[in-house]
Amino acid sequence: MKNLSLFILLVIGLSFSQCKKEDPHVWNDPDIPGGNVGTNYSIDKGTSISIDAFGLVRDESGNPLSGVKVTMSGKTYTSNNLGQIKISQGTAYDRFAYIQAEKPGYFKGSRVFVPQPGVNRFEITLMAKGTPELFQSGNGAVVKTGNAEVVFGKAYKDGAGNAYTGEVTAYTKYLDPEDPNINKIMPGDLRGANEQGEKILVTYGMVVVELEGASGQKLQPADGKPATLKMKVPASLTSAAPAKIPLWHFDEVKGIWGHEGEATLVDGVYVGTVSHFSFWNCDTPLDYTRLIAKVTSNNKVIPELSVQIKRPSGERRKGYIDEKGNFGGLIPAGENLEIEFFVYGSLVYSEAFNSGNAESITKSYSIPTINFATVSGTVKGCNGSLVPSGQMMVDNWNIAPIIDGMFSFRAYKVPGKVVELTAIYLHGGNSQTRIIPIDKENIVTPDFGLCPNGGATDDFEFSFSLDGQNYQIEGVKSHTTTDSMDLFYGGKAALDFSTDHDFRFSFVLGGDWDTKSQFKIPGAGKNGYFYIHLGNGIMSMYPDDVDINVISKSPYNIQFSGTCTYYDQATQQYKAGIITNGKIIEK
Length: 587
Hints:
Elements: E1 48-58, E2 69-72, E3 75-78, E4 84-93, E5 97-102, E6 109-113, E7 119-125, E8 133-136, E9 141-145, E10 148-152, E11 156-158, E12 163-164, E13 167-175, H1 182-185, E14 191-194, E15 197-212, E16 218-221, E17 227-232, E18 244-251, E19 256-266, E20 269-274, E21 279-286, E22 288-296, E23 305-310, E24 316-320, E25 326-332, E26 336-343, E27 346-354, E28 360-366, E29 372-380, E30 389-394, E31 398-403, E32 406-412, E33 418-425, E34 430-437, E35 442-444, E36 448-449, E37 459-466, E38 469-477, E39 484-489, E40 492-498, E41 504-508, E42 519-521, E43 529-534, E44 537-552, E45 557-568, E46 573-586
């Protein structure tokens, strides 16, 4: 078997930046058609370059979002069913890459980072708009969202500047500065610009507002009719909150936060007026220095590392190293900071340092030896042949390539550690996911099964007898990602098969994986299920009394029998049943 190294994608900057001169590549007109309002301030993006990037788009629960329109420098990409976006030779600048993401029903999201050589990676979390507030334009309204309140005025205009009267639809959302995921949710990278140039921003709260008219047209407050924003300062930030704080709005065209107005602290709440809507932010600006750094362990690069910079106030920014151990970004100047290194979420090393006031700071780190396990396995197609190429996603972020059906990568070995593996056939969009415990030095996973051609012609025979009644399910296919066969899930012995037809067959029960030709799954209390859906009739077999013996097992040949207690939909009673002659076999 080939020993393939884990392909770790490159670092995003640490969400900080700098400014030296006016940028010729940005808009300077503050009024942008379509309802967005820009800023007169600019930043130095640097020189135009081509970059490669890989990203993930998720919802606020961490679920991948498919079908997201992702744009960089005018070129559009679409996220796949795993929320992934791959950008090859995209246009950016050597100090500025700006990626936007949008999907109906969600607020727009974006990410800004300082590109590095190799493959840059990014992550964007989109916020669902949820249920809007409705009010008549002439009445105004007061809308509360989280720790924020928006006092809407009584006059509005459309994107062309024409007066609008009628029903107003308001979507609002508060962004908590204490949310550990705020750097994935907020637009841009807290890179702001004011009359002094480019700054690093420290947020005390954000709110996003979108207004629509009765026909879905974008609306803004009428000239001279501002709205009032109120944002409560979290208790942990009140001691540092200034009496007055600059207000910043996000310019969707430039990808930066522009200074516009200020808010006053009144009884623990920042209050300010705004003349237009987008993302608004209460921030203090900071000076910066550029961090240029490298990290190794025993003179070797550990590409699985992630890095975090922590300020004394507790604010954190996270980044990733590249394949040579390099990382960097712009950090607050003149502060005592702490740098932390993680492997798959586990802290392995930390060190304090002062950032100084020079234009840049160069650091080198040597961290202790890290114990790794080697995880390897095989990925097969529907007919049992090796998948020629693909990707093995590790914890939905890092990637190990699949070459000639084989994959291998390193995982951090600590007690109780598990990794989520998703085998992906890129051309067909097919995938299969398993949870693998990292409990020894060399781990060989059960085979993954994918269908490179989409599986449309791979038919299965699915039959069984329940209490002497024979059931034959027709039209069973291995097909796309909605269908699956799985004999291993969550560290437990399991069988799972489902289709997009009018039935579902599935059971997941307790019991450890057994490498022998047979294994028996004992009753597992409430941690499993056995469902059979037959047309309009449903028989639900509960796991309280299920004893299934899998006679043979492979991704394409499963035979089973046993006993169960099930609920008969016809009689609406529980019954003890005997399952015999169970088969799921590829034809």
